[in-house]
Protein 1
Amino acid sequence: MELCIIGSGYVGLVTGACFAEVGHSVICVDNDQRKVDMLQAGKIPIYEPGLEELVMRNVAANRLRFTNSIQEGVDGSQVIFIAVPTPPQPDGSVDMTFIERVAREIASALKPGQYRVVVDKSTVPVKTGERVAATIQRYNKEASFDVVSNPEFLREGCAVPDLMKPDRIVIGCGSERATDLMKRVYEPFMAPILVTDINSAELIKHAANSFLSLKISYINAVSAICEASGADVEMVADGIGMDRRIGRQFLNAGLGYGGSCFPKDVKAFIAIAEEIGVPFGLLKEVERINESQLERFLRKMRDGLWVLKDKKIAVWGLTFKPDTDDVRNSVPIELINRLVNEGASVTAYDPKGMEKAREWNLIPDSVKLSATPLEAIDGAEALVIATEWKDFANQNLNDVRKRMHTPLVFDGRNLFDPQTMKDLGFIYYGVGRAAAK
Ligand code: UGA
């Protein structure tokens, strides 16, 4: 099929590349000319495992191309996906400026008698589909189209496999014609398809992300009880996770959730519920627990080091999770800023996130960035594990200990085993487990 994706960010670009990979002919539109130029020159603006090969292969096969013209995309495609940002506003509600503008632009590009399916893939508040349809109608009375909500569930760092083998495809739609076309788009993925009305599809996305955030906050709250009672949160998570009704995934205690989805979507869901008159207090508690997790970790560091001022602290990890270069809303970045504010001297290392952290001024100039994980810990009085990159788990821990001035490890992701660390001569603090000294 001929498909157009408007917006070449994480969701748009990976979706476009995967659609091309299964044989569709895809045109990706972005209004950032610099990004379009980069993509046309074969450069990928983000790091996502497997994405570069996928883009290269499909560009070479003439199934994937890039443009800045919505008109070109709309003219040549049966189905038009909207995948533009829906950033948060200061009060937590969603800024719909980009979606609204794209809806108007699609309206002006639609020609009479030319039927199109307009699909919203961005994460949007319930009832957005109705507004998109009304906007297109208002700006183009002749337009023949249907609006579909088709939320995306890919995770950064494993976006390509998530998209190629999804747990489910949600198609929110009120028209049989559009539903049939959408089913054809997704047929090659051989995934279960759930057809719903538009409002339900929109709610599914916010409800899913909020539920996953709730799972993380739940285990983080349990981790505080474990610390206070001498239990080990990893064992507790294994024990409850073996119940298939609960499942072990997203029960990893740590520094709290970050990134450009969970914090924003929980806030948005709270605001949406408030607006329609059904306040969602449970989610406010999810947020509160998430924020307190970093505070508890900092308290632990103060316990171990007594005073943070002038301490030489190495931090492994800048990105909000492993296998990505994304440093937006990253808890590790917030942690580093807090440490610097308390007067610590911080050296950091991350396999992929250093360039963007510097370029976007997310960390103070005083933070030194190292070329390797071992270089970062030279003479350090403490090491913090802030992101669970495999690279960190594979380091030779004897070398790590020898290079450090004092062998304190604060493991914000429970990457290491406390007893092993103790046997190697470390003083080890994890999350939700007793310190091993
Ligand atoms: C999340 C959802 O998992 C995707 O399904 C969704 O499509 C996406 O948001 C989105 O709305 O676009 P993502 O933010 O890329 O994906 O990453 P996750 O793997 O979900 O991690 C989010 C945060 O939770 C990270 O900071 C991670 O460290 C944290 N986390 C995750 C934990 O602290 N513990 C866990 O057990 C799992």
Protein 2
Amino acid sequence: MKIGILTSGGDCPGLNAVIRGIVLKGTTSYDLEFVGIRDGWRGVVEADFFPLTRHEVKGLAKVGGTILGTSRTNPYEGRGGADNIKATLAEHGIDGIVAIGGEGTLAAADRLSKDGVPVFGVPKTIDNDLGATDYSFGFDTAVNIATEAMDRLRTTGDSHQRCMVAEVMGRHVGWIALHAGMAAGAHVICIPEVPLSIEEITAQVTSAFERGRAPLVVVSEGFKLKGQEEAYSDKGLDAFNRPRLGGISEVLAPEIERITGIETRATVLGHIQRGGSPSGFDRVLATRLGLHAADAVVQQAWGEMVALRGTDIVRVPFADALGELHTVPQSRYEEAAALFG
Ligand code: F6P
């Protein structure tokens, strides 16, 4: 049996560990053959394949990025479409695809699978916003990077008695902000699920400042102030026609300074949260997902994906991951809010 592996959408620490897990288990336990597919669905549509053996995956668990490359190509556009893809796979003797990706990738995988293309999925998102999986690999690494960055912001903030506003990723959900903010002792955390007014934010900033602290505000890129219709975006659209987010901290910082009179600085962490080596937790999670994906393709569990439930790896239909976003529950926000101010 020959299997193609692709990574698609935004990259994420742990992608290489998944690839290694699939190839090691697939070759040693099942005698599977693998090809790497370059740059996500683009490589499927354009038949851009290369042999993927144990040799290519050695030492990969700790390596950031993806050796396969990635893109946000839609497999139904251009020369794509299910019939063309089926013909390409048949021509190259490929019996199925493992697609490692987030919401957009899994939605495409779901559609292709319904159109008869054998696809199995591995969920990926640093934002931790996919339904059906309690945590996704990449999230823990992003939280560690953001926490370290905020620890650093706090020492410079303390030295100058400034308010520091740290902006983290999180298009629809505030998991990175919530976890990194709690870990770093933020005085207020602003997430997409809980709109706040500028006065609610500045009240916490002032309270922290009056206690002699240099206030730390953590904000998700997708946060909206009360009354704000759309998340802040001034960078146009991405390949999926979604607004490119980033910059809300630079809107909030001058407002905080104007209202409180406290000198305020904004820092956008951006793609640094997606780069570099995965954490130990993410290496293990990604490797386990890869090992289970190898079992799944042998059993031809097409149309499904692996997911983490508690501490177990389970299999669920694509639809389960796509139905609802994995948002921060109100109770988790309230728990963290006890530490604000
Ligand atoms: O979906 C994950 C994510 O990291 C979002 O938080 C962010 O909005 C987006 O990717 C940015 O991706 P890129 O700049 O690579 O298009």
